[in-house]
Automatic annotation (TrEMBL):
PANTHER family: BLR7848 PROTEIN, LEUCINE-SPECIFIC-BINDING PROTEIN. It comes from the Bacteria. Belongs to the leucine-binding protein family. The keyword Transport applies. This is ABC transporter substrate-binding protein. GO terms for biological process: amino acid transport. The lineage of its organism: Bacteria, Pseudomonadati, Pseudomonadota, Alphaproteobacteria, Hyphomicrobiales. It comes from Rhodobium orientis. The keyword Transport applies. Pfam families: Peripla_BP_6. Keywords: Amino-acid transport, Signal, Transport. InterPro entries: BCAA_transport (IPR051010), Leu-bd (IPR028081), Leu_Ile_Val-bd (IPR000709), Peripla_BP_I (IPR028082).
Amino acid sequence: MTLKLTNLLGAAAVSVAALSMGALAASADTIKIGTVLSATGPASFLGDPEMKTLELYVKEINAAGGVDGNELELVAYDSGVDASKARTFATRLVEEDEVVAVVGGSTTGTTMAMIPVFEDAEIPFISLAGAVVIIDPVKKWVFKTPHTDRMACEKIFEDMQKRGISKVGMISGTGGFGKSMRDQCLDVAGNYDVEIIADETYGAKDSDMTPQLTNIKNTEGLEAVVNPGFGQGPAIVTRNYKQLGIDVPLYQSHGVASKSFIELAGDAAEGVRLPAAALLVADKLPDDDPQKSVVVGYKDKYEGATGEPVSTFGGHAYDGLMMLVEAIKRAGSADPAAIRDEIEKTSGFMGTAGVVNMSADDHLGLDLTAFRMLEVKNGDWTIAE
């Protein structure tokens, strides 16, 4: 088994060519796929588990004989959160590496920077980022695996509606995901009889959200708060929230769906709710849950290989890779157009995010039932009651 490391344009470029001795026929071709991820930098909590997941499963697939006897080669670049670098690496994947498909894009910003490159080159691209704008409107060559920010708003407001909550404050990050989710929440709130009565924001470098949260706390009639965002911002919001003694429910987004959020927020995370994939509560699912075998299988393999707790972000990469592999098998070809067509036909695929049923009008294929409402209890994720 070989792993080649090469530095390109100041970022990590990893070529994973896991060879199983004698497992592949001498005449087998290599199917070259690409990824651009935020494996280092402020969004490494997204990109690092995504990169490790892709490397782990490409090795496993090749050790088992590849895809219909053809070895997979993963060409991977680390863009950090730099959209310009992401676009440069996307161009390199197309023009120099000649990949047939791409699974990547940890953040909305880097994803949106790469989309024009893959659309122009007619290379199928499965994004791992959250914003609905990635697939709405539908773009012929672009798909995604995580639930959208719009769906997160809907799941949160659905839960609020069940709890009799209608007057809500919002504090949002100003990055691509936070801004997009804020806009989506404002757009759908009325559908759930929710009124946004306070609306604050914070920047990526802000280290104290007390002023914004004080404004929200002092808003008359406040019944709950939603925090669209990812990275360290939501953990800071959560700690400041407790420090100010705000005594109404706090909801976060699936942008913080990893154990690192609980570790960063500490005791203040207790009681926080958020919509997320079943992966975070894999061991707590009932045995008859049809998703349990998939999420437990991924969790055990990832944690066993890395020694790190599983996150939904690595799960997004697992889903993207497995859908791509199945599409290549159905296509019986490494032709990008044939692969694209088969990705779009994905039906009944059980992934870590839920059951995926794509179509020409839906390049995500998930509905709200794929989201679980979770709550932090005793420092761990639980299924909210």
